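Supplementary Methods, section 5.1.

A reviewer requested that the exact input to the structure prediction be made available. We therefore reproduce it here, unchanged from the version used in the analyses.
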Amino acid sequence: MHQEKRAPKTLWDAYAFSVGYTIFTTCIGHPAERLKVAIQTNLAQSAYSVITQFAGVNVKHFSTGFLSCVVRQLGKVAYRPLLITQMPKEIDKLQLSMFSGGVLKGAIASVFDTVVVSPIENIKTVQMKTVASHTKPITPFQAMNTIYQQRGLAGFFSGSTPTLGKAFPSWFYLFMTYNAIKTKREKQTFLSTILWATFASAPVAFATTPLDVLKSQEQAGNKGQQSLGQLAAQIYKNHGINAFFRGFNCRLVHKSLSTAGAYMILDMAHKI
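The structure derived from this sequence is encoded token-by-token as follows.
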């Protein structure tokens, strides 16, 4: 029996999928993101203490930063399909080795991602650092005003160094793991893709969590006049090595969802 030929995918298909998937992951992943930032920016309290303070509180408090997350994620939709679909194709034309190509792709994607996302990341972190039992929720505009008053325009790019440091291995790992497991994932279900993404994301999420903690601390305004090295030394002195891995579980939830989405967009890219 003649099988109907499927129409080739287009860049617009990638964008359409990105919008829908972004809405889905933002709604599902926001609670994890909210808890992660609160845990990482309140190191004087145990993770359990921070989490229990959100139990039974007003939904409005738990949803603090949701609008900022939506803006951040929709902003990513504007350029990430290009970074994930078109940019790798252009790099592949250079006929570099898989490793060298992955390094170049990761470098371009991480620099672009860091520059574009940093302002809204800072706003989100200032909002989310509040713990439910201590401070009233603040709006994005209040967070913007706080950042500008305390740190000026440069404050909207606080945490760029650790952000870039954790973004590069994440992007590099994404491109490398996609190629490594692509044949094993073909014709599998959405849940299978999530499972593959979780296994693929766990090592890089664990390895980059210390940088994520430093990023959150810096964006929350806890760095002061210290260098990044001095901030790391202070965290280690006051809270021990475990503090650098605070929020890993929450990060893994978010990372797994975003990696699965990236895999599916890359699948589309190969059909364009």
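The CA atoms of residues 143 and 182 lie 42 Å apart. These observations are discussed further in the main text.
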